Amino acid sequence: MSAKLKDNQLNMSQRSAMTFTKAHKMKTRFVRWTALAIAFGVLTSAPALADAQTKVRVGNLNTGSDVGLFIAETRGYFKAEGLDVELMSFPTAAKMIVPLASGQLDVGGGSVSAGLYNAAERGIGIRIVADKGTSKPGHTFSALMVRNDLIASGRYKSFSDLKGMHIATAAFGTGNAATINAALKKGGLKYSDADMVDLGFADHIAAFANKRIDASMTSEPVATLIEKAGLAARVPGNDEIYPDHQTAVLLYAEEFAKTRPDIALKFMRGYLRGLRDYNDVLQNGTLSGPGADKIIQIMIDNTNVKDPALYRSIVSAALDPDGTVNVASLQSDLDFFSEQGLVSPKVKAANIVDMSFAKKAAADLGPYKRATQ
After folding, report:
1. 363: exposed, middle or buried (C-beta count within 10 Å: 0-12, 13-18, 19+)?
2. Three-state SS for 323?
3. Mean pLDDT estimate for the chain
């Protein structure tokens, strides 16, 4: 065999060995990278899957009655249940109806309204599942207010004097309007005996100042700001006019409650823990008990009211520590809406209320006992 042929065979052998070695190294690297990729995929896909399963989108109004949500989120009660809660701001509860129906929202809440019942009648799946504001004794979160000059002149002495007055309600077809109706009834009047003005709470101050309105049903903190400005005074509050009035509720989308009941229950447990912390610091209807400063800071961080002194002075919303809803009050409002021609008389409040989640969550947490600070 010639020397040249031997060299060629040696080169081929070396190239084959080098090719095999390179291929082996590449295969080894591929196996290692594949193993790492699989391992990494397992590690990353599990949380991603968990996030998809535990993500809960919640509509809120950034108001005082959202305090249970804010506390639960800030103090990690939702996270302790394995939930990733996203709070989404809405201007009104009515704006949440379509997102709840379409699955863009899992949870919502706000004032009870004719719109909510109309949505239910149309088959839009929404359930009332817990309390989000009630006019319990000592909690005049909303109050009937009358201009100071009308009181001083004797024009207003009692409910019967509301006749012919321009009275502001936050919106027609709401619990706010139902409270005004209750006040008029106490004076022997009908809803039509007064001139109702549809006006948002924030605009009540200017309306009193320029005497555009004579009276209003105004919620905190605006009611306190009106008093401080010397424009109007509280006559009996909501707790006297309409005792135990269910003014606001927590809502679940039907899809959320039906297809993810375990997650819905976990959310409710976190929410009730927030409500219980809130009740712990209430004293005489105000945020003035031990530990209240921490709750006030949570409110400041999550609402448009940034004055801690104002939070200490306003009458706080009553929120049931077990989330219990007053169904009789809801039906009373519904009857009023029906009388106004805003809702079909076929709709019944009890058909929309589902207290199962709140009852189970309260049982899991045990009987509420006010914490000693």
Report:
1. exposed
2. coil
3. 86
Superfamily (CATH H level) for 54-136+245-365: Periplasmic binding protein-like II (3.40.190.10)
Answer yes or no: are the C-beta atoms of 319 and 287 closer than 8 Å: no
Closest to 126 (Cα-Cα) out of 327, 354, 334, 355: 354
What DSSP line would sit under 103-169, residue for residue?
TS-SEEEEE-BHHHHHHHHTT--EEEEEEEEE--TT--SEEEEEEHHHHHTTS-SSGGGGTT-EEEE
**pLDDT at 90 exceeding the cut of 70:** yes
State the helix-helix crossing angle for 67-74 and 261-280, rounded to 10 degrees.
100
- pLDDT value at residue 122: 87
Query: What integer pLDDT is reported at residue 373 of this predicted model?
Result: 53
pLDDT at residue 3 tops 70: no
CATH for 142-241? 3.40.190.10
For residues 89 and 29, give the distance between their C-alpha atoms in angstroms, rounded to a whole number. Answer: 50
**pLDDT reported for residue 19:** 41
Q: Angle at Cα 100 formed by Cα 97 and Cα 105, nearest 5°?
A: 130
Omega of the bond prior to 367 within 30 degrees of 0, cis?
no
What per-residue confidence (pLDDT) applies to 120? Answer: 85
More confident residue, 313 or 150: 150
Q: In the numeric block, which tokens belong to residue 9?
A: 């065979």
pLDDT band at residue 372 using 50, 70 and 90 as cut-offs: low
Query: Helix 292-302 crosses helix 67-74 at what angle (to 10 degrees)?
Result: 100
Question: Rg of the chain's alpha carbons, rounded to an integer?
Answer: 30
For the chain, give the percent of residues with pLDDT over 90.
68
Gap between the Cα atoms of 282 and 89, Å rounded: 26
